[in-house]
Amino acid sequence: WRRKAKKEVSPAPPKAEAKAKALKAKKAVLKGVHSHKKKKIRTSPTFRRPKTLRLRRQPKYPRKSAPRRNKLDHYAIIKFPLTTESAMKKIEDNNTLVFIVDVKANKHQIKQAVKKLYDIDVAKVNTLIRPDGEKKAYVRLAPDYDALDVANKVSFLPTNPLIIHPLGANDAYVSDQSLIFADES
């Protein structure tokens, strides 16, 4: 067995040695030589795990090829306007249009839909669900809009109302408030 001769390590040049010493001193100054960690006092028997950094997922490809189409768009929200006697009274007296709307639509969506479709300003929307399950919306217009004008413009109301005569529906009908008999044609 032959012993390997120890290689003599040449002493480091004085410049490098001085640099290392200076770095060591710098570290000691920053950290402090006689540092001792203080023990944390625990005041509760339950250990709450600290909140750590959770990075957002970076998926390699989207899991859905295309985003879903919004089925509840402006045209789906408003089904049709109501033209009953009471709805007409609302138009005249309260500056309010009455619509049947989608049950899933909320007041904000109804307001936006009316604004976009009819190009009018809405002051307030009240809703109720009718006994037959439909949702009714009372849309009050801003004071600078007239509900009657808007209703005529978007042909809510027939411009030339054909009123069936109550006495004899087959014999006569009233058009433009003048009685016309079917026999005299």
UniProtKB/TrEMBL annotation:
<keyword id="KW-0689">Ribosomal protein</keyword>
<feature type="region of interest" description="Disordered">
    <location>
        <begin position="1"/>
        <end position="68"/>
    </location>
</feature>
<dbReference type="InterPro" id="IPR001014">
    <property type="entry name" value="Ribosomal_uL23_CS"/>
</dbReference>
<protein>
    <recommendedName>
        <fullName>Large ribosomal subunit protein uL23</fullName>
    </recommendedName>
</protein>
<keyword id="KW-0597">Phosphoprotein</keyword>
<keyword id="KW-0007">Acetylation</keyword>
<dbReference type="InterPro" id="IPR013025">
    <property type="entry name" value="Ribosomal_uL23-like"/>
</dbReference>
<dbReference type="InterPro" id="IPR012677">
    <property type="entry name" value="Nucleotide-bd_a/b_plait_sf"/>
</dbReference>
<keyword id="KW-0488">Methylation</keyword>
<keyword id="KW-0539">Nucleus</keyword>
<dbReference type="GO" id="GO:0003735">
    <property type="term" value="F:structural constituent of ribosome"/>
</dbReference>
<keyword id="KW-0699">rRNA-binding</keyword>
<comment type="subunit">
    <text>Component of the large ribosomal subunit. Interacts with LYAR and GNL2. Interacts with MDM2; this interaction may promote MDM2-mediated p53/TP53 polyubiquitination. Directly interacts (via BIB domain) with IPO5, IPO7, KPNB1 and TNPO1; these interactions are involved in RPL23A nuclear import for the assembly of ribosomal subunits. Interacts with IPO8.</text>
</comment>
<comment type="function">
    <text>Component of the large ribosomal subunit. The ribosome is a large ribonucleoprotein complex responsible for the synthesis of proteins in the cell. Binds a specific region on the 26S rRNA. May promote p53/TP53 degradation possibly through the stimulation of MDM2-mediated TP53 polyubiquitination.</text>
</comment>
<dbReference type="GO" id="GO:0005634">
    <property type="term" value="C:nucleus"/>
</dbReference>
<keyword id="KW-1017">Isopeptide bond</keyword>
<keyword id="KW-0832">Ubl conjugation</keyword>
<dbReference type="InterPro" id="IPR005633">
    <property type="entry name" value="Ribosomal_uL23_N"/>
</dbReference>
<dbReference type="GO" id="GO:0006412">
    <property type="term" value="P:translation"/>
</dbReference>
<keyword id="KW-0687">Ribonucleoprotein</keyword>
<feature type="domain" description="Large ribosomal subunit protein uL23 N-terminal">
    <location>
        <begin position="18"/>
        <end position="68"/>
    </location>
</feature>
<dbReference type="GO" id="GO:0019843">
    <property type="term" value="F:rRNA binding"/>
</dbReference>
<comment type="similarity">
    <text>Belongs to the universal ribosomal protein uL23 family.</text>
</comment>
<dbReference type="Pfam" id="PF03939">
    <property type="entry name" value="Ribosomal_L23eN"/>
</dbReference>
<dbReference type="GO" id="GO:0022625">
    <property type="term" value="C:cytosolic large ribosomal subunit"/>
</dbReference>
<dbReference type="Pfam" id="PF00276">
    <property type="entry name" value="Ribosomal_L23"/>
</dbReference>
<keyword id="KW-0694">RNA-binding</keyword>
<keyword id="KW-0164">Citrullination</keyword>
<feature type="compositionally biased region" description="Basic residues">
    <location>
        <begin position="21"/>
        <end position="68"/>
    </location>
</feature>
<dbReference type="InterPro" id="IPR012678">
    <property type="entry name" value="Ribosomal_uL23/eL15/eS24_sf"/>
</dbReference>
<dbReference type="InterPro" id="IPR019985">
    <property type="entry name" value="Ribosomal_uL23"/>
</dbReference>
<keyword id="KW-0963">Cytoplasm</keyword>
